[in-house]
Structures are given as structure tokens and as C-alpha cells.
From TrEMBL:
Higher taxonomy: Bacteria, Bacillati, Bacillota, Bacilli, Bacillales
Highest taxon of the lineage: Bacteria
TM regions (residue ranges): none
Protein name in the entry: ABC transporter ATP-binding protein
Protein source organism: Niallia taxi
Family listed: Belongs to the ABC transporter superfamily.
Pfam families for this protein: ABC_tran (PF00005)
Family matches, as PROSITE patterns: ABC_TRANSPORTER_1, ABC_TRANSPORTER_2
């Protein structure tokens, strides 16, 4: 089976005072199901830009992004964003005055989820990431940072995308809670066959991932932490 997501000869640059500033130069990386990837690199190395291209929040200046071998432009960028990829943000991006459950069911409605009983499925996804039925009925404002990030992961799961991308998902959390969130993301890859791509500054998280993509000065290196993983 081919890769789930493939970035082919991707380049990205910004224009700054009429000069071209290269951020990513001719990068090719593939992402497979069942693998937990981390993207690391110094501040400004283009990690967030990379994730934005992988999740169609932006388009590369050069090169293409393929999903199951098909150019995501052909799939349609908004359809790809809605149906094929789920994004977890550092700042959770939940609707604060809604309950955890409403946050998840609202996302299911927006993405046109085909689940018949949305509430039941949302509760199941929330339970999977450690949010009880009681907590699910609380306004997210009243939940801790770690609980809010769990809710945002449950929201990411509810649209059944095989590809989950996360930008510094543990950036606002203490070490213990961060480790729990990493455990959840790891389990999604290893037990549920998702392709999980996490941008992080944290070396400890990178060490726990299966494959590390390191960005530096526009170029990149890919290292497998596990011998069984081909890169
Ligand atoms: N809209 C923009 N216009 C010009 N330059 C930009 C723009 N957005 C980002 N950049 C620059 O592109 C570079 C890469 O940014 P990016 O956010 O992808 O890096 P990063 O590795 O995620 O950084 P950090 O770890 O600090 O979040 C940075 O130098 C940033 O200043």
C-alpha cells in the first residue's frame, strides 16, 4: 500500500522587502498509517509552515501534496481539510461557552459527519481520550488545560480522518499532562492506524515518536527511531 500523505518536492518562500526568503526548499517526505511522526527544528525553521502545507491550510509555492497518490488540489482543498485531515492546535481552539460534548458534536455537524447518533459517538470519542460523561457536559471554560486538549483531540477524532496533525499540542501543558497527551497521540497511531504528525520543540516527545523529521535552514533530515520503520 502506498503512503497516506506525500509531500513531493515542496518549496515555500515569503517575499520580504522585495526579497525572496526561502523557508522550505525542495522537501520530499511521506507519511504512512500507523506511524507517529514528529517535526522538529529551531524556531523559524518552517515547522508550522510545513504543517500548514500538509493540512491544506496553505499551498506550496512549488511541488505537490498527494493524499493516497492523488493531488489534494484535485480532491479539493476544503474537502481535504474537512474530511481527510484533523488538526489539533496548541491553544485548543475550542468554543469556550459550549460544553465539551457540544464542541465535538458541532464539529461533526460542520464536517458533515455521517454518524447517525452524533451525541453517542462524540461521548465515545471523549471517553477514549479520558473525558467522562459528566465532564463532557461541562462548559470547556471550566475544564483544565489538559482536559481541554483531550476535548480537542476527541473533536479531531470525530470526523474519522486517518491523518491527524498537531502543532505544539503540549505547549501549554505541564510535563505530566503533556506526557498523557503524547500517550494518546501515540496510541492513535499504534492502535488505530492513524498517521499522526506532531510539531514540537520537545526533544523528549521527539524521542518517543517513530520517525523524526528535522527541519533546518530550508532542508531536512528524516530519522527513524525504530528499526522496523522505513523512511
Ligand atoms: N506571513 C509571513 N510573511 C513573512 N514571513 C513569514 C510569514 N509567516 C512566517 N514567516 C516566517 O517564516 C519562517 C518560518 O515560520 P514558521 O512559523 O513556519 O516557523 P516555526 O519553525 O514553526 O517557528 P516556531 O518554532 O518559532 O513556531 C519564520 O522566519 C517566520 O518569521
Amino acid at each position: 500500500m502506498g503512503s497516506l500523505l506525500e509531500l513531493q518536492n515542496i518549496s515555500y518562500w515569503y517575499k520580504h522587502e522585495n526579497k525572496k526568503v526561502d523557508i522550505l526548499k525542495n522537501i520530499s517526505v511521506s507519511f504512512d498509517r500507523g506511524i507517529f511522526y514528529t517535526i522538529i527544528g529551531p524556531s523559524g525553521s518552517g515547522k508550522t509552515t510545513f504543517l500548514a502545507l500538509a493540512s491544506a491550510l496553505d499551498v506550496p509555492k512549488d511541488g505537490s501534496v498527494l493524499y493516497e497518490g492523488k493531488d489534494i488540489k484535485k480532491i479539493g482543498l476544503s474537502k481535504f481539510r474537512n474530511k481527510y485531515v484533523s488538526i489539533v492546535f496548541q491553544a485548543y481552539n475550542l468554543l469556550p461557552y459550549m460544553t465539551a460534548l457540544q464542541n465535538v458534536t458541532t464539529a461533526m455537524e460542520i464536517t458533515g459527519s455521517s454518524h447517525k447518533n452524533k451525541k453517542e459517538y462524540a461521548l465515545e470519542m471523549l471517553a477514549k481520550v479520558g473525558i467522562s460523561a459528566d465532564q463532557a457536559r461541562q462548559k470547556v471554560l471550566t475544564l483544565s488545560g489538559g482536559q481541554q486538549q483531550r476535548v480537542s483531540i476527541a473533536r479531531a477524532l470525530c470526523c474519522d480522518a486517518e491523518l491527524i496533525v498537531a502543532d505544539e499540542p503540549t505547549g501549554n501543558l505541564d510535563e505530566t499532562t503533556a506526557q498523557e497527551i503524547v500517550g494518546i497521540l501515540q496510541a492513535l497511531a499504534h492502535n488505530e492506524g492513524k498517521s499522526v504528525i506532531v510539531v514540537t520543540h520537545d526533544q523528549n516527545i521527539a524521542q518517543q515518536s517513530d520517525v523524526v523529521v528535522k527541519l533546518s535552514k530550508g532542508s531536512f533530515t528524516v530519522t527513524a527511531n525504530k528499526e522496523a520503520v522505513h523512511v
